[in-house]
Write a structure and sequence with these properties.
mainly alpha
């Protein structure tokens, strides 16, 4: 079954995501020096990505 034409995204780009995935947040925290080795990846603080 195909998508209706009104539901398709023109150009195929979705833009920038405003939410980071967990592994991206851990990587960012490591770069900023806020990540302690052995720390649980659950319940991470909110982080803003590169703008």
């Amino acid at each position: 079954m195909s998508k209706h034409n009104s539901l398709k995204i023109s150009g195929g780009t979705t833009g920038n995501r405003s939410v980071l995935k967990r592994f991206e947040r851990v990587k960012l925290l490591k770069e900023r020096g806020l990540w302690k080795e052995g720390q649980s990846p659950l319940g991470l603080p909110k982080t803003k990505g590169e703008e």
